[in-house]
């Protein structure tokens, strides 16, 4: 991990990012436009904001191979599928339920990493994610008591979370050989194009929306995307990925508080209990991951120190 310091304390920037992404579900709930239209303009406006700063990465752009473009297309498609399913889930279930379920992203990544790369996790990490899964069952059980639509929303959120996990796993492979900024911009453009084709195929209106909706589209691009996700990506140069990933825990908490204050949403005791299990299990998982990462960093540092000592002794 780099020792550079950002112009603003990391903790403050993390708080700003968590608050920003917590507003995502609120803006979606406020909008009456179809989820596919909200997502399309969110991605389009974000791409327009990013495009003026892409020139330094033009050299990397021309070096992309056909296989890279195919992976970028797959990543963009999965990101579009994530937005379509997760944003659609908010039409049927509460903000708290949907965002708490979406926090299960590490579960799907762990399963995918094991199936594709044979990466194994510690028993403690698996136990933590197991507790989180039990929490999701509690949330779903509580939603069944409210209505069948709530359960439908929970299922859409689960599938949307699986889609974004695939998107992130593809991205992990691509950013190892291309700038993350360029990767994000290309994927946003591809996902936006997927939504444009989807809306065209389904006959969904592109422009017939009141000024309020256009304001929400812009807010979705600026607040949760620029001051949320892009800010977190920028913070990776100043702090560890494990620290940045703590926003997974912050979003459902922040979104639930905002939904209570701004939307009047209330949860049952069973749902709150499930939420506590989800966040507690994920906290355990991230804590174990941080310990493993620290040990690996210390092992590499020790190895480098020994490598420097050996030539001196030989001389």
UniProtKB/TrEMBL annotation:
Organism: Paenibacillus apii
Domain of life: Bacteria
Keyword Nucleus attached: no
Keyword Electron transport: no
Protein family: Belongs to the EamA transporter family.
Membrane topology: Multi-pass membrane protein
GO cellular component terms given for this protein: membrane
Alphabetic keyword roster: Membrane, Transmembrane, Transmembrane helix
Compartment list: Endomembrane system
Transmembrane segments: 12-33, 39-57, 69-89, 95-116, 123-141, 153-170, 182-202, 214-232, 244-263, 269-290
One matching Pfam family: EamA
Domain (EamA): residue spans on this chain: 11-140, 152-285
InterPro entries: EamA_dom (IPR000620), EmrE-like (IPR037185)
Name of this chain's protein: DMT family transporter
């Amino acid at each position: 991990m780099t020792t550079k310091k950002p112009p603003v304390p990391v903790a403050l920037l993390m708080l700003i990012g968590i608050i920003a992404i917590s507003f995502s579900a609120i803006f979606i709930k406020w909008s009456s436009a179809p989820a596919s239209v909200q997502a399309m303009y969110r991605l389009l406006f974000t791409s327009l904001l990013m495009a003026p700063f892409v020139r330094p990465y033009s050299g990397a752009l021309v070096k992309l191979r056909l296989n890279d473009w195919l992976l970028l297309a797959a990543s963009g498609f999965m990101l579009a599928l994530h937005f379509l399913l997760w944003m659609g889930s908010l039409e049927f279930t509460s903000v708290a339920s949907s965002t708490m379920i979406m926090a299960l992203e590490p579960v799907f990544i762990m399963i995918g990493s094991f199936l594709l790369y044979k990466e194994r996790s510690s028993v403690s990490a698996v136990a933590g994610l197991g507790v989180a899964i039990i929490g999701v069952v509690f949330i779903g059980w509580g939603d069944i008591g409210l209505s069948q639509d709530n359960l439908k929303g929970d299922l859409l959120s689960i599938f949307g979370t699986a889609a974004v996990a695939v998107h992130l796993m593809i991205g992990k492979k691509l950013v190892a050989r291309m700038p993350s900024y360029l990767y994000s911009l290309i994927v946003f453009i591809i996902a936006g194009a997927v939504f444009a084709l989807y809306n065209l195929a389904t006959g969904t209106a592109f422009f017939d929306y009141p000024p309020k909706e256009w304001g929400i589209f812009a807010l979705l691009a600026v607040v949760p995307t620029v001051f949320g996700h892009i800010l977190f990506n920028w913070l990776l140069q100043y702090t560890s990925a494990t620290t940045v990933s703590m926003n997974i825990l912050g979003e459902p908490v922040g979104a639930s508080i905002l939904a209570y204050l701004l939307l009047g949403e209330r949860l049952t005791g069973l749902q709150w209990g499930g939420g506590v299990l989800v966040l507690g299990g994920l906290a355990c998982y991230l804590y174990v991951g941080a310990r493993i990462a620290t040990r690996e960093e210390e092992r590499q540092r020790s190895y480098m120190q020994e490598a420097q000592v050996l030539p001196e002794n030989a001389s």
